Model the fold of this input.
Amino acid sequence: MSVSAAPARLRLRITAAAETAVRSGHPWVYSDSVLEANRPGRTGELAVVYDHNDSFLAVGLFDSESPLRVRILHAGKPQTIDAAWWRARLQQALARRAPLFDEQTTGYRLIHGESDSWPGLVLDRYDTTLVLKLYSAAWLPRLEAVQTLLQEIIPCERLVLRLSRNIQADAARQSPPRRDGEILFPLRTPPLAEGPVVFAESGLRFEADVLHGQKTGFFLDQRENRREVERLAAGRRMLNAFSFSGGFSVYAARGGAVSVTDLDISPHALESARRNFALNQHFAAVGACRHETVQANAFDWLEQATVKFGLIVLDPPSLAKRAAEREGAVYAYEKLNGHGLRLLAREGILVAGSCSAHVPEAEFFEAVRRAARKSGRRFVELKSTSHPPDHPAGFKEAGYLKMLYLQVS
Done:
């Protein structure tokens, strides 16, 4: 009886431009940059990239269907990618977060994809629940190994799997099939209740819909901006447009806002905002703050509104999902913030945000400044912010988050 040999290691050669990019630390090799392969690759296997001198350049996860053909795990001198290597990478990511949080904050990011050398994978903590989100099908064949490693290293009561839309069909074809919102651990029959998880952030309490909510259940990347809004809120009427579950509003209430208005098109999001206020009624300032919710299209509502606010947060969903939408997004940001500026009271503060990776920071800030100039009012820039320390942006395309704070002078 013959025994079939294991297939040879997948070897790739790439263009000179891609080689330069990998040497400089860029974590992606695009499909059109691959010049040569020794055989067809399988999604999830390791691909070794060689340079023009036939020397080792990098190793990464291969995805046979994605335009991002290889997600780089390591570049430089050759290393063995084994269980010990993965364990060390996880412990490095955890060590970066260890000094950042205490018991007042039990919701934060533990692994931030490429910037933590886990390309296409993020891991968030919500108290005793971990949420693993995959953005590349290359992780699906490795899911059980990743799950085992996480359970060995990070104590948790529940591990939830979230899948980006582009890989859900691939996940359904796995053996066993995988689905978005699946509880990987613990395995129980009947399954655990599907209610939200409650976690702490800066001493406040919030719920996260870890099974079905946006991202992994909450916008953890805005933590530092929420803290800044709390500092600015005293004595002001606040509008939180595109409010989602009211995170900015709860902080503003604790900071002494007279009233807060959550504006969102989703009734589900507004219900969550009301529950988050209820979770924090033990703070006297939150209990004293008037909380209103408005279900409407925020763009339409802002254009028609006449009421004035002392603090306005405009943090819309991404307005440019792809590079071709960049120009339209810049125009939309200018128009949106123009409406917000019009609704500011004297000495009012506008917090303008963008999470569109395809809109560079400089273009977004200039769009907001143009809106300010066109308003005819005088403004001062208080500050600008970007990524929090648990969401590092280690390469150009990772830099999606930017906020600009303006005040009527």
About this structure: The two ends are 85 Å apart (CA to CA).
